[in-house]
Amino acid sequence: xxxxxxxxxxxxxxxxxxxxAVSAGGEDAVIKFYAKDPERAPVxxxxxxxxxxxxxxxxxxxxxxEGSYEDPPYLLTERLPGxxxxxxxxxxxxDQRRTAGTQLGExxxxxxxxxxxxxGMFRGGELAxxxxxxxxxxxxxxxxxxxxxxxxxxxxxxxEELLAGGADRVCLVHSDFNPKNLLVxxxxxRITGLIDWEFxxxxxxxxDLGNLLRFAEDPVLAAAVLEPLRGMGLGERLVELGxxxxxxxxxxxxxxxxxxxxxxxxxxxxxxxxDTGTLAGGRxxxxxxx
Length: 290
Prior knowledge:
The protein is α+β, with helices and mostly antiparallel strands. Helix content is 36%, strand content 18%.
């Protein structure tokens, strides 16, 4: 078993408070404990090994596959350089935003090119796929306690029509692809890390794009993100397709509006969708051709 430094600094990411910066083997590292979902540790480790060299992910240093709530499984990885992407974007120039956005689009393109045979959650270190079994969007929404009203039926129809005309394939989905889980070198605007893979699954090639653009109001960044995805057989209406594929996760997040501000923002967005009867829900067009 790896020896950890006596001090550990909690890191943001996820909402479980189970990730810490530590020192191990003479280098800075990150340890994540899996008390709440012990079976996920080998899945995350296998995913990092799968994509290493293709995506900017950390090396796996150690893995404890089994354990209890009191002595949980863990995953120890190297700590990647860079700062949180949102912190960077707060002061970035247009040129820096374009540089970072182009790289984000390239990462999304690589993810969309990693195929799986069916959609579902990963199980075990072999990354077996267990189908979701959630039914269609209408059934899913019917099981939620959101009281969205009749206007949301038009939103569901729009989403299903869009996805029916999009790329009919399944790929690797990070499923939490947004600035809090992305690192960037502030000097070069180079993307240095894609972290926190706890929700990764096999699914739609539009899901991660939708997650990234969910609350986006930056047309410079968005245009740069979309450019590498053009001509990949993903369709032309990328922004709308992303919103459609993101709807499942957005609704799930909206159900937890009382837990944190991001979930509250999701609830407000879903409510605007219901009020307008559109997927856009009053969001701006991002100044790009969709």
